[in-house]
Amino acid sequence: MAQFHVLNTEQGIAIMMNSQQQKEFLEATAWLRPVTRWAAAFSIRWSGILPAGIRNLPLKMVKRILANYQTRMSSGCKTHR
Hints:
The structure is a single chain. The chain starts with a strand and ends in a 7-residue tail after the last helix. Helices cover 56% and strands 12% of the residues. Helix 1 (19-28) packs across helix 4 (57-74) and helix 2 packs antiparallel against helix 4 (57-74). It has a two-stranded antiparallel ribbon with strand order 1-2. It is elongated. The protein has one domain. With 81 residues, the protein is an alpha+beta fold. It is built from four helices and two strands.
């Protein structure tokens, strides 16, 4: 029996991903993990110094990239850049 996981996109649409799709998603976005850690550290480090819009820009970019990957994978599109 396949398990499904509900993931939310920034558009507020719920997307169902089974275990295999989730595994593929994690493998496809593995390169982004160090960038995510750096973006979080940047945001924390500059808290109180930079305005929130600038400070959180790297995290917003990571969020958009992940949402894009998630949307492409859930739509069945197998093209990866």
